Every structure is written in C-alpha cells, then in structure tokens.
# Entry
Amino acid sequence: MTRRIGLAILSVLGLAFVGLFIPVTHIRHTCVICRLYRVKSVYAFVPVTEFHVSDCSRYYRRNVEPSHTHIWEKSICTYWTNLYGMSRGVGCSPGRYPIWTLDPTTQLGVYQHFENPREAKAIFADLTDEKTQGDRLEEDIFTKGHLIVRAMRAWEAAGFPGTWETWWARFYTLLSAHLVLDISELPPRSHY
# Structure
C-alpha cells in the first residue's frame, strides 16, 4: 500500500515536472470591425481557440449589425509559455497593424459619434495591415492607417467635435503642413 502511494506521488510529480517543458504558443487576433478577440493557443500539438468579447463588440452586435464576417488582424506579438503559463518568450513585429494601436473604447466612441455607424465600419475594415502597409500619405513615415488611428484618438481627446469627415480633413491638412506632430499639439477643443 505504501509503495503504491509512493508510486502515485512520484507519477504526479513527474507529470508536473514535464509540464514545465510542454511548449504553448499564444497568438491573439482582433476583428478590425467589432473588436472581438480571438486567441489561438497550441498546447504542444493540441490547438485551442478562445473568443473574448469587448464593450465595442457588444455594442456593435446590438447597435450596428447583429452578425458580420469578421476581418481578423493578427497581434504584433506572439507569446510562448509552458503548460503553467510561465513565460518562455515573446516575439513582436513593431510598427505594423494599426488597429492594435487603437483602444477598443475609442473605436466604440467613434461608432457612437457617426450618424451612420456603417460608414465607420467601412473605415475600420480598411485598417488591416494588408491594406495599409504600403499606403503612405505623401512623404510621411507613418502609414495612412496609423494616421487615421492617431486622428481618431485626437478626435476622442477633443470630445468628438463635429463629424469625422470634417475632423479628418482638418487633421490631414495640419499634418500635411507638418503642424501636427502629436495629439497634445492640437489646439484646444474650443477651436473646432
């Protein structure tokens, strides 16, 4: 009896030790339209996919359209852990994927400030890396997608004055004249 208990304890400890060496890969994706999150994990050779809703994805489903074809954009980082979640490494591709620089709460606010939220959907659908990677405005070092995200963050910081079209035109004009380098350099909201 004592031998069986000892063998059982050794087996459990052995399996626990092996868990330290089982590789797990996590890759996050977000839908550029609604900001639903999808995490694809591979535990050794076993794939597992999880979905996580955000306030933006809930709002989108209730107020814009109940269903749509998701446009998934991969995160800039891939995470590696062991079976217990202890980090083994991170690999990132900085400077790409503009949607990942836009907070979902800002995207939610943008949807709420469009008279027709489907027009905002069209803008977000074009914020994929595939569509924006080589699209630069004049000689700017940033892609058009990154500039749109910067303009949306500035629009939110100013309290969403006016329409997006008016805001974007003004932001782009100031940007073209090299007058806007950072959101903090925009004039106070009362000037819009």
User: Anything to note?
Assistant: The chain has one domain: 19-191. Residues 185-192 have pLDDT under 50 and may be disordered. DSSP finds seven helices and five strands in the chain. The two ends are 82 Å apart (CA to CA).
